[in-house]
Write a structure and sequence with these properties.
Helices cover about 10% and strands about 35% of the residues. It is mainly beta and about 80 residues long.
């Protein structure tokens, strides 16, 4: 999803190739949740999305080939 924008700006990113920066997000599209203001990291709890049923959650984030986030309970 990032290869076309990268190509438009002639950037060496957006591809999984040897030597290319490995910036990835691993996403679980089947994770179901309800948005709850008590779960927000921010002190602000106003959101038009509170109570919405949503799908998807980030499982891991990799920046420059290094895992910088991995969801608790997921094996690397």
């Amino acid at each position: 999803m990032s290869s076309a924008p990268a190509a438009a700006f002639n950037l060496p990113v957006g591809q999984l190739l040897p030597g290319a920066p490995a910036d990835l997000a691993v996403f679980d599209t089947e994770h179901e949740a309800v948005i709850n203001a008590d779960d927000f990291y921010s002190k602000g709890h106003n959101s038009p999305f509170v109570g919405w049923h949503v799908y998807g959650a980030t499982v891991a984030t990799i920046v420059a080939g290094k895992v910088v986030y991995i969801k608790e309970g997921v094996q690397s």
